[in-house]
Amino acid sequence: MKNDDLDFDKKHIWHPYTSMTHPLPTYPVVSAHGYELILRDGRRLIDGMSSWWAAIHGYNHPIINQVMHAQINRMSHVMFGGIVHPPAVELCRRLVNTMPTGLECVFLADSGSVAVEIAIKMALQYWQARGNPRYEILALRKGYHGDTYGAMAVSDPENSMHNMYQNYLPSNRFLNSPTRRFEENWQKGDETSFSQFFSQHHKKIAAVIMEPIVQGVGGMRFYHPEYLRLTRMLCNQYEILFIADEIATGFGRTGKWLACNYADVTPDILCLGKALTGGMMTLSATLTFRHIAETISNSKAGCFMHGPTFMANPLACAAANASLSLLENDSWYQHVEKISTYLSVGLAPLISHPKVRDIRVLGAIGVVEIVQEVNISQIQHWFVENGVWIRPFKNLIYLTPPYIISKEALMKLINAIAMSLDQPENFISS
Ligand SMILES: *Cc1c(COP(=O)(O)O)cnc(C)c1O
């Protein structure tokens, strides 16, 4: 990559949530290997992000690469209308076998946001098919479910700037974000607001959607599993569908295979994405029960109304199969547990730092909540100068490292965060 390319990038290419007139700096990455990103000048950065929860086996994993090469040589893509292929069957079989019992009808799509759109559409079609249409989804404040319209409409109204798209977004209902933290003791009375809301509004609600345990983009908050159990119970009581968005949390990140496992609940509809392909390709899956799929299919519409061009892309399915097979063989649980311990031990002392408001760790997720917002371009530069790739947002510096990271590399990430706190220019003075 030449300087010319960087100029072109600045001038012509949008980046996530970034201004086109005053873009944040971008760093040219020319390759990546294991837990390292390699810059064009040869510098190697330790990856603390897994490319947003996705690259759980690190980059360029030889086995995943090999499986993908083999699939390219057979076919990278073929339409899914009227056609089925081995990678899709293998993947859906794996998902049906490893996800909670009963979630046996699988819809494969392109990305996490689309998986959420599909889940919402399934819920709406389900109620329509029952001759009792319901038009609202119940979601949590501080939730995040993606950037497309349906997903945005169930994400936190303030974070997702609902007012920017007023009159175009469907209106939904929001419950206050859970306040009881993951590790706290559940108190009598914590359930009151949830229960009251359900009893008042249930007749209009088609489904509840939640990120189980971890509210990611909305603040990296870890809430008490009892909220999930309670939601499951209320959904049963009032016959509301329960959609679990495990796009970030699925495949072991929180220390359980699914975050729902912390509460022993099974959702009616489950959304998976991000780490599904080990971060190699974009792919998502929405799983549901047979009775829901059958209700939808036995309606006047006769089918579920969705079918993306790249549905069940064989190359993406092959990557997912390789990733899932590694997770089967390679005891992910022990890796995540080790990372969890190192994160806990390494980050805990930072709580006494005046810049730090809170430290929390769950599975292979470590969060340092700061008392003020970070100066993103400055702190990013500082991290790169110090050999690590960490991308904070707002007042949150967090780590979601690849499961294969070494203890030494993880310690370097933690040390970099510790040192970054002593550089005043890394933060926006309030
Ligand atoms: C990332 C994410 C999404 C959206 O997935 P995309 O692949 O970015 O569309 C949805 N829900 C949650 C919980 C996520 O973390």
TrEMBL record:
The keyword Cytoplasm applies. Substrate binds at residues 52, 144, 274, 307, 391. PROSITE patterns: AA_TRANSFER_CLASS_3. Pyridoxal 5'-phosphate binds at residues 112-113, 245, 308-309. It comes from the Bacteria. GO terms for cellular component: cytoplasm. This is Adenosylmethionine-8-amino-7-oxononanoate aminotransferase. The lineage of its organism: Bacteria, Pseudomonadati, Pseudomonadota, Gammaproteobacteria, Enterobacterales.
